[in-house]
Write a structure and sequence with these properties.
Helix content: 10-25%
Strand content: 15-25%
Strand order of the largest sheet: 1-15-13-7-9-11-12-4-14
Number of helices: 10
Number of strands: 15
Structural class: alpha/beta
CATH class: Alpha Beta
Order of helices and strands: HHEEEEHEEEHEHEHHEHEHEHEEE
Number of domains: 1
CATH topology: Glucose Oxidase, domain 1
Distance between the termini: 45 Å
CATH architecture: 3-Layer(bba) Sandwich
């Protein structure tokens, strides 16, 4: 069963309880993409990753240099600190060590390990089933029916398929003349414009945008709590900027992915809801963008071929990824 789960402009849900404030709903109506790719769509803005977008990405690979953007999947050094219950760092253990599989250690021996981890514990994509509010989920699906103890029956991460396009780095910190944005800095559309000007690249439909704040400097110093918050990040003001340019997906170098604490206490994590629920835009967090930023600053090239296909875990609401930028 599908339903719009809509709120009125006063922020009251149909049940009469308080929800997001009026400005949020006005913005949600402005950027909403429901039905744009059909009533049964499960891809959202990833529909924009067409042949033209991929060829534009291939054209940006002019030097053959590859830069990985994923964090190590580490139990000891992972970014998770128990702030989100259950989102644990990888727990890896050996299940066999130099085992003589045919009984003769001189013929063939093998070692095997297994991992238990939260799929969004490190560098990852959020699936469209990851976020809902007031009974609203991407494209009008009912989150109560879609997401159960068995996982997500609709809009799960394996539906994303291949995620390959032109990537554009918007180095907001560098564009502002800062090594790292201050904690709690709410990135504005003007900030994105300045970063786009620095890049010398116009963001167009089907591009994947990577937003650098410099926040990951805390991780390199082992200051994980400072990495978590207060955190700079995208503000709700930037949502129309992404919608107007038909950005296919967006990722950042922070734990939260948007400014934290929120600008409006009555509207926690509004960018998640607007991107994922209303626009159908896939989000990524904990992307290691500093090496890429240094490389872009050195050669002046801020666009590249980006391969960032999520691991196809069925019925999952997120997936780890080790993205690769090829310049």
């Amino acid at each position: 069963m599908r339903g719009d789960g809509s709120n009125g402009a006063d922020g009251l849900s149909e049940s009469g309880s308080m929800g997001y404030p009026g400005w949020f709903h006005d913005l949600a109506s402005r950027v909403n993409n429901w039905g744009r790719w059909g009533d049964d769509d499960q891809l959202g803005t990833l529909n924009l990753l067409d042949e033209k977008a991929r060829l534009r990405g291939i054209g940006a690979a002019r030097q053959g240099r590859a830069i990985a953007l994923g964090l190590p999947l580490s139990a000891a050094e992972g970014v998770q600190m128990g702030l989100i219950p259950g989102r644990i760092n990888p727990l890896r253990t050996m299940v066999s060590v130099n085992k003589p599989d045919f009984g003769d250690p001189t013929i063939f021996c093998s070692s095997e390990d297994v991992v238990v981890m939260a799929l969004q514990c490190a560098t990852h994509w959020d699936a469209l089933a990851h976020v809902s509010y007031d009974g609203r989920m991407w494209n009008g699906y009912d989150p109560v029916e879609v997401v159960t103890a068995n996982g997500a029956s609709t809009c799960s991460v394996e539906k994303a398929g291949t995620v390959v396009s032109r990537g554009v780095l918007l180095d907001v910190a560098r564009a502002r003349g800062e090594e790292r944005l201050t904690g709690g800095h709410a990135i504005t559309s003007d900030d994105l414009d300045r970063a786009q000007e620095l890049a010398g690249v116009e963001v167009v439909a089907g591009d994947i945008v990577l937003v650098r704040t410099g926040q990951m400097a805390f991780l390199r110093k082992g200051r994980k709590m400072d990495y978590a918050f207060p955190s700079p990040g995208l503000s709700a003001q930037t949502v129309p900027w992404m919608r107007d340019r038909d950005v296919a997906a967006v990722a950042s170098d922070t734990l939260v992915g948007e400014v934290w604490p929120p600008e409006d206490e009555a509207a926690p994590l509004p960018v998640h809801c607007l991107h994922v629920v209303e626009m159908g835009m896939t989000q990524g967090q904990n992307w290691a963008l500093d090496p890429l930023a240094e490389d872009c600053a050195a050669d002046g090239q801020y666009d590249f071929l980006l391969e960032a296909t999520p691991e196809p875990f069925t019925n999952a609401v997120g997936s780890p990824v080790n993205p690769v930028a090829i310049k």
